[in-house]
Write a structure and sequence with these properties.
The chain is α/β, with parallel strands linked by helices. It has three domains: 160 residues, Rossmann fold; 73 residues, no CATH class; 209 residues, P-loop containing nucleotide triphosphate hydrolases (Rossmann fold, 3-Layer(aba) Sandwich). It contains 16 helices and 18 strands. The strands form three sheets. A six-stranded mixed sheet has the order 3-4-2-1-5-6. The longest helix has 19 residues. It is elongated and about 75 Å long.
Length: 471
């Protein structure tokens, strides 16, 4: 069956949400053809106004349509417009290219009576069925991010699939964890020709052996043989790797803005957060693993103590978990404040850690708050951040395009830290494998100036830890 499908010509019917999700999806189907029902164009027309990312993406799709039609001849409208990528995409999207077909005729509706054809989704199903009947030699597939629409399509005998082009993984278990456990025989196989040296107060080792092929730069290595060996891969060349002995932030003398790491993963995270050579850090973990607290502590230490950065900027996607409470009064920062409860909670923890017993820490909280700017993600386009410590909270709710928009805002001297839990996604049509956070982790894996750490151990309270296990 699959081999027959591979040999047959393919026609993909695109749902509206595919073009909204990725405007360049038009050029991502290689030599295969694309069919756009008229109802999709109607839905695009209804959503083109406004300043939201959805409206911007729709306007970009419309510009692609306009350019394709301008470069096509009159007969191509009915016989298929060649999907030639525009100049700004030409390096990424290369021939062969398929054709774009707009619905130019009314197709017969052959849906069950329980599915009236006046609904947009049902209209798309009817058109797909009609295309299957009209073109029996062509493999027709409906591409949509709407799960319910894919279910209805399957019931009607229509092949339906999700849009996978920006999906880096098929299974979340394959996502880069950021660490690698050394086996018991590691030093027997890799320690014979090992050399070590010190540089700028840091200890380095050069090792070679068969396990090096499983490492990438800035992978954290640890051993459970009782030696408490913890290091970070800094460089890989041919058959040997240079690893650096990590700094132990669990020791009281190595506090970061009054905070110590409580476990191995937190210690590795602080090594990355405090490293000026690391420009991009991603921290993934469940509630109570310390993502926000560690990030704020490291940021404030480098803004106030070492003055490496000018200020901290914190932003997040404003996706409500419950019912939307509507518009909020005030300035941009005042509107964002209700979404930043985690920031206020962690500032309270940091203030308590820095003040003496029985002292009021309210004044210190206000001082720390002044070093942090809360910004809305809606106004990030076109900005460039210079010497800033940028925190993107709840990054699992970003799409890959939104993540690209945010990270490309970084100017010289700026560090970006992405925090999130891929098991708590609130944005419609996003999954663990298509989240912008997963996308960024996989794309930046192995770059010398990026690092990732998965935090697994909760440190909030015994109640929270138990709740995670049983609820």
């Amino acid at each position: 069956m699959e081999s027959n499908q591979a040999e047959r010509k393919k026609l993909f019917v695109l749902d509206t949400n595919i073009l909204i999700h990725d405007p360049s999806a038009l050029f991502r189907f290689k030599e295969h053809d694309i069919y756009l029902p008229m109802v999709v164009l109607e839905e695009l027309d209804q959503g083109k106004k406004g300043l939201s990312d959805t409206a911007r993406n729709i306007r970009q799709v419309n510009r692609y349509f306009d350019n394709l039609i301008k470069t096509a001849s009159g007969k191509d409208i009915f016989q298929g417009i060649p999907l030639i990528a525009p100049d700004q995409l030409s390096e990424t999207f290369t021939p062969p290219c398929g054709k774009l077909f707009f619905q130019s005729e009314e197709l017969p509706i052959v849906l069950p009576e329980s599915l009236p054809g006046n609904k947009p989704d049902n209209s798309i199903l009817a058109i797909t069925l009609a295309l299957q009947a009209k073109n029996p030699d062509i493999w027709v597939s409906l591409v949509t991010k709407d799960i319910n629409l894919r279910i209805k399509a399957s019931v009607l005998g229509i092949h339906a699939e999700d849009y996978h082009n920006d999906q880096m993984l098929d299974d979340l278990s394959f996502m880069h964890s950021g660490f690698y456990e050394l086996d018991e025989n590691f030093w027997e196989n890799h320690g014979k020709e090992m050399s070590s040296w010190k540089q700028d107060g840091k200890t380095f080792y050069q090792v070679n052996g068969p396990h090096i092929k499983d490492w990438v730069v800035n992978t954290c290595l640890y051993s459970n043989d009782g030696s408490e060996f913890e290091s970070i891969v800094r460089n890989i060349e041919n058959e040997h790797a240079n690893i650096e002995y990590s700094k132990d932030f669990r020791r009281p003398k190595n506090k970061v803005f009054g905070i110590n790491a409580r476990n191995r993963e937190q210690n590795f995270a602080l090594n990355f957060l405090m490293d000026p050579e690391i420009d991009f850090v991603s921290l993934v973990g469940g509630a109570g693993t310390g993502k926000t607290l560690l990030t704020l502590a490291a940021g404030l230490a480098q803004v106030i103590d070492t003055k490496l950065y000018r200020e901290i900027i914190m932003t997040r996607v404003t996706v409500p978990v419950g019912e939307d409470i509507g518009f909020l009064p005030g300035t941009e920062e005042e509107k964002m404040t209700p979404w930043m409860g985690a920031l206020m909670d962690n500032l309270e923890v940091l203030a308590q850690a820095l003040t003496k017993e029985n002292e009021d820490d309210t004044e210190l909280q206000e001082i720390l708050k002044k070093r942090i700017r809360i910004r809305s993600m809606n106004f990030m386009r076109g900005r460039t951040f210079l010497n800033k410590y940028l925190i993107i909270d709840e990054a699992q709710n970003l799409t890959s395009k939104q993540m690209q928009t945010m990270i490309t805002r970084a100017g010289p001297g700026t560090k970006i830290v992405c925090l999130g839990n891929v098991n708590q996604i609130d944005t419609p049509y996003l999954t663990e494998t298509t989240s912008g956070l997963t996308y960024a982790v996989q794309c930046f894996k192995g770059w010398n100036h990026s690092a990732h750490m998965t935090l697994t151990r909760g440190e909030r309270s015994r109640l929270a830890d138990y709740a995670v296990k049983v609820l």
